[in-house]
Amino acid sequence: MPLTVQDLLKDRCQDLQFELIAGSKGQTRLISVSEINRPGLALGGFFDNFRWERVQVIGRGEQAYINQVTLKKSKESLREFFKFGIPCMVLTHHAEPQPELVQYAEEFQVPLLLTSLATAPLIAELSSYLEEKLSPAITVHGVLVDIYGLGVLITGDSGIGKSECALELVKRGHLLVADDVVRVQYLPGGVLNGKPVNEMVRHLMEVRGLGIINVKELFGVSAILDSSRIGLTVHLELWDNSKEFDRMGMEDHFVEMIGVRVPRITLPVRPGRNLAILIEVAALYERLKERGINTAQQIEASLLSKMGDPALESKPGRETRSSKANPSPPIRTPYRRR
Predict the structure, then answer these.
(1) Does the active-site annotation cover 174?
(2) What percent of the chain has pLDDT over 90?
(3) Average pLDDT score, the chain
(4) 3-state DSSP call for residue 119?
(5) Between 330 and 103, whose confidence is greater?
(6) Which of 13, 25, 85, 251 has the smallest number of Cβ neighbours within 10 A?
């Protein structure tokens, strides 16, 4: 979704203490990247590797450079700077802008913003906002629940019971993030963050037979969460006797979303199965796998180790070398009072 300077001012003008002092006609300029640029030598006319497409932040160092170098030698280099299609320019520390900055900002319709924040805090807050707004995102039909700190995306055909399962998980003390449609956003570091598509449906859940319920009002603020990192997807599928479902868990399965592979399990749905408990256990098991603990693989490794042990090839009835070295302790029957 395109982001303009006008959107930036609308969303964060108060938080970032922005004041538009020149170039108001350029508020429709697009901000296309989340990185911030501090223009150093570009202000003096050296434009090699100049990242003009970024928001330009002018701190105290850049302001001193403009006063002592750029304006004393020639204003032409500063004029050439504004000819680039920069989205906007931000002056920090509530510094008094030089008349030339205001003049060129108006001439080339570049929004010139003033803030009382220091340079480092401004860059941190602005970068975080731009990353959230400009990161690639998709919408997924499903329910997102935070289980023990792990975001679990429950998918499946319409009417299979995703919302009912999520409702049971909420009753068990877990947190609802989004129901029906989930906005999945890519964040730096290969993180997928899930949240509701908009504010209107936040904390709402549709349950067939009951209608739309407000989870926050029913269960309190401790039952909802604004967003969660997606670490597991659970796909609900109707039980099919002709299909063989995974019983051992020897192989890990994944689904790709926005270039990120997310672990995926398929749970067959049939009467009598408690899906909420199964998903809860799946989330716990996934957290164990993240720590390098995989029960199925441990069993396989143990079996392969025993199959390759020469002691197993000895004749029956004989004591093996391993049994002599590590004799089994005697089994003791616990004393029972009569």
Answers:
(1) no
(2) 60
(3) 86
(4) helix
(5) 103
(6) 251
Q: What is the pTM of this model?
A: 0.71
Question: How many H helices and E strands in the chain?
Answer: 11, 18
3-state secondary structure of 293: coil
Name the residue ranges covered by the structural domains of the chain: 3-134, 137-295
Contacts 24+ apart (CB under 8 A), 207-210: 207/163, 207/164, 207/167, 208/159, 208/163, 208/164
Q: Which of 245-254, 257-266, 309-318 has the lowest mean pLDDT?
A: 309-318
11 as an active site residue: the answer is no
Q: Which of 72, 247, 318, 338 is catalytic?
A: 247
pLDDT at 328 over 50: no
**DSSP 3-state assignment of 132?**
helix
- Choice among 29, 54, 133, 162 that is catalytic: 162
- The predicted-structure confidence for 123-178, as pLDDT tens digits, reads as follows 999 999 998 889 999 999 999 999 999 999 999 998 898 999 999 999 999 999 99
Structure tokens at 31: 């901000």
Concatenated DSSP letters of 134-179: HS-EEEEESEEEEETTEEEEEEESTTSSHHHHHHHHHHTT-EEEES
Catalytic (active site) residue 141: yes
Under CATH, which number does the domain 137-295 receive? Answer: 3.40.50.300
- Give CATH for domain 3-134: 3.40.1390.20
Among 10, 83, 141, 261, the active-site one is: 141
- pLDDT score for 323: 41
